[in-house]
Amino acid sequence: MAKSIKVLIAEDHDVVRAGLKILIRADPQLEVAGETNNGPEAVRLARAAQADVVLMDIRMPVLDGIAATRLITGDEDLAGVRVLILTTFEIDEYVFEALRAGASGFLGKGVEPNELISAIRLVAAGEALLSPTATRTLVAHFLADPNRARAVDHAQLSDLTVREREIMALVATGRSNREIAEQLTVSPLTVKTHVNRAMAKLGARDRAQLVVIAFQSGLASA
Prior knowledge:
The chain is an alpha/beta fold. Helices cover about 50% and strands about 15% of the residues.
């Protein structure tokens, strides 16, 4: 039997948190590892509960979700913990800051239950997930204000092969491995291999950080 995915819920609205617990407990592959309504407790529980995925609200008391995400992803002891941002504030500034903080995914609270469950599984498997709205706003953010991009180590970028650069740019559009594979007429496994190599060369935690680097470097500026 496959190991269940431990999900920590960090959400300051009691009703929303209760609904999330019901959804997660209804899936035999998932389990609720804990719950909290504030950022510091989310960081503590991520370690204590050995969570696989943290469902993280952005606006919470004491410490917001983005700051809590930064603490989790910056802790080497929590390297296996993935953060999935779940919020009503699906706008460019939050998308960019959440990804830069190390979040592996970003979904609006209007998402369908089955989409949320699928997102948890994807993120737990090491993939990254951006909703269509989040992807569009991230793209718009960089196209409208390219001066916001931070410096990128171009020596690392030079280590990328032409194919890795091409696939990295496609990842930044929000395409899945299967969609990229269909476009390039290769196998999804080949795409995954190129993505993993690009992440290793650039020191990216996951695909979400590849999106950020792609825009920061200009690979996805057009």
